Amino acid sequence: MSSATLLDELRIAQSLVAGLTEDLNEADWRRQAHPDLSPPGWHLGHCAFIETYWLQEVLLGDDRYTAPVADLYTPPRTPKSERGKQLPPPAALASWAAQLQSVNAALLQDPPAGVSGHPLLQDDYLLHFLVQHYSQHYETLVMILTQQSLATDPGDFSVDQPLEAIIDKPETAHIEAGHYKVGGTAPVAYDNESPAQQATLGPYSIAVQPVTNSGYLAFMEAGGYDNPALWDAPGRQWLQDTGATAPDHWRRNPAGHWYGIGSRGAYALTGNDVLHGICRHEAQACARWANARLPHEHQWEVACRLHRLEQTGRAWEWCDNPFYPYAGFRPFPYEEYSAPWFDGNHYSLRGSSLHTRPAIRRPGFRNFYQPDKRHVFAGLRLVY
Fold first, then answer.
1. Beta carbons of 38 and 32 less than 8 angstroms apart
2. The pTM is what?
3. Domains observed in the chain
4. How far apart are CA 49 and CA 132, in angstroms?
5. d(CA 326, CA 197)
6. 214-236 tens-digit pLDDT
């Protein structure tokens, strides 16, 4: 991909992030809709700040734009719950972000001679990084808008064709034992995808399709949430703490029919559509109920690279293994992107969701969340 194409991709990513925040009223713009998510307005400021940090402060040694707002937009420095009240007015923030993006675009189009050979600019690494960073925050903003919709749904959406429970009978792809390439390399791959590895896998069979809404409803109606044998100890504790009985964005109307909530409000659930809205505890229990298990992320990636999987872009898919560093891992371009999350309490997810931008739709991309997170657009695929 040429530098000019990447610059266009960056402009598109910037406009998409801005577009999700510009029509919100100020209260929603500042409101924290979920304990794990920041207010919408903060994401616009953070993305402009991060872009400027790398391009102006790191490359040029100029922190006049970033130093005054570093405490607000550097995640560890200000708790999510405090960010909304510290934001400037929406119009002022939007103008500030647009001005910074204009300054940064000029730098990217014609880098000064003194920085043109910087490692961060090699093979357009920084451009790829920024496009992907904006893309990730775009998807997070859709999560936030979905949580806002959940909080205001009146619960009376009319369902013309009720969702029916139908046990999935998935077609499977058999993958032979062997040595397979996984991972990726710069300038596109993130540090946790590198260096590329050789994965040694035994034979396995993996579902061609992910679990569907009807298939998950079958798990629910079979008493899946009430059967302690399907849940490990952390899962049972999570059930006790949350009282969950359905995916995060599913709601039941007065007639007892299920419907979904998205960023634009209520919608009808389609039985054969790919399930999302569950945490890893739920995914693991559903897999046990189906006499299957979750895939190791390398099993998923290998099957994807072999073009044996379908519907990989409908929902993130929980994997069996914790998020961990590949052999030879080196943090780049900064320590905090991946390394802090190799803690044994974050699990890998693969694929992508309907809201994932093309820049991060690749077989080797590794998403990662704690096992109790349900606001992610995540479902599951079975391995036998």
1. yes
2. 0.97
3. 3-152 (1.20.120), 172-379 (3.90.1580.10)
4. 15
5. 8
6. 999 999 999 999 999 999 999 99
